[in-house]
Amino acid sequence: MDLAEIDHRAFDRVAAAKLRGLESVLPRLSALADHGKLWYLVAAGLAVTGRPSLRRAATRGLIGIALASPVVNIVGKQIFRRRRPIIDNVPQVRLHRIPRSPSFPSGHTASAAAFAAGVAMESPRRAALPIAGLAAAVGFSRVYTGAHYPGDVLAGAASGLAAALVTRLIWPVSVPAEVVPLDRTVEEVTPSGEGVVIVVNGDGLVEEYLRGELPGAAFESSGELEDRLERAARKAKVLAVGGGDGTVGAGAAAALKHDLPLLVLPVGTLNHFSRSLGIETVSDALNAYRSGNLSRVDVGAVNGVPFLNNAGFGIYPDVVRRREKLERRWGKWPALAVSTVRALRHTAPVRTSIDGEGRRVWLAFVGNCAYGSHGTVPTTRGRLDDGLLDVRVVFARRRLGKPGAFAAVLTGSSRLGYAKWAAESLHVLPSADDLLVSHDGEIRGSTSPIVFDKHPKRLAVFVPAP
Questions:
Q1: Which strand (E) or helix (H) includes residue 213?
Q2: % of the chain beyond a pLDDT of 70
Q3: Nearest to 206 by CA among 66, 58, 50, 318
Q4: d(Cα 147, Cα 159) in Å, to the nearest integer?
Q5: Domains present along the chain, CATH in parentheses
Q6: Residue 353: is its pLDDT beyond 60?
Q7: How far is CA 172 from CA 13, 250, 369, 399, in A?
């Protein structure tokens, strides 16, 4: 018995089956999945939740569909040109509009599998499993309604899974870093928040919500941010800071100065550090606080100023400033490309000495712990306590000029001047005294020399319960 005969017999068995309650449901599900409508609706539902992980999941799922659909429907079907099943044995009530295109592989199933697999890469199980079940139901409905043989569906599912995996080459998966909880929990943690002093930068609604959740906590709400953080740290047992990465970095400096545990409240635009901790919402932060779980993470420093994510110089501060304005709407990679072009337009490479070696530098990125991505675009970190700086530099090469620098930023090619290494410190002596340096999105001038170094496992932070 060959595979085609097995496929035909399996189709006949499904055609003869009568699943009570599903005779009208599955045909409607199959119709809803036409042209990806079902998955666009699911993606919209994930996006409106406001959770960054679910928005990323929706985006990755749609990218998977965009890759799988043309490969299956334009290339695969034209290569194999398999005829649709004979539907004499399929009850009339199930019959949906039978397409005239070739049968192998199933385009509906490819889109369903690509979307479900993409969602599973970015979202928690409670969101991924129902969507995976829905995708499986779509695949089965294609056989149940007489549109495809089971082999068509299996091939479509394999194609969709392959497309989802390809998305990882285009856009690395965002996963929290591995954080190791301390052996003890915080004795000062109370359900109502006594001993917690909260500083929220610029969001009154969040502050109002926190007053309801932690009625025993105190707030510092007036004055300049650094003054508020200093006042809060002097009287706190736990310092809670809400804002973007720059605000959280300033909060970390205050927590380090007064040897306090830090509770990170993600109310900024991008919140890279809190996402590395596995905290995506204020609710996640409160759950981490109530669990009492602490971890100690590394802190980077540039001339003594702490940073939690990364720092840099050359065109990097300008690229960061421009990219953050575009990233939320366009995504990281398109925003990076546009920002790099704009930053390169009116600039020249910086003449510096790096660890005693004179070089011309277009861009220098210094990460607090190793980032998993290749090239000069930071994505996620596997750990937050490796004791190292992740150094990535694009050196200027006379023959290549600005086009070569742009290509090196995007591709991370060593032939174009890109270099990467790990270090415990980095000493930079720029030829100009007014070199701009960025750290955690904040940009300021820095005195010469510039020293990047590490403080391993210095900062105690609340992390979600294992």
A1: helix 204-213
A2: 89
A3: 50
A4: 18
A5: 3-170 (1.10.606.20), 190-292 (3.40.50.10330), 310-451 (2.60.200.40)
A6: yes
A7: 42, 29, 17, 32
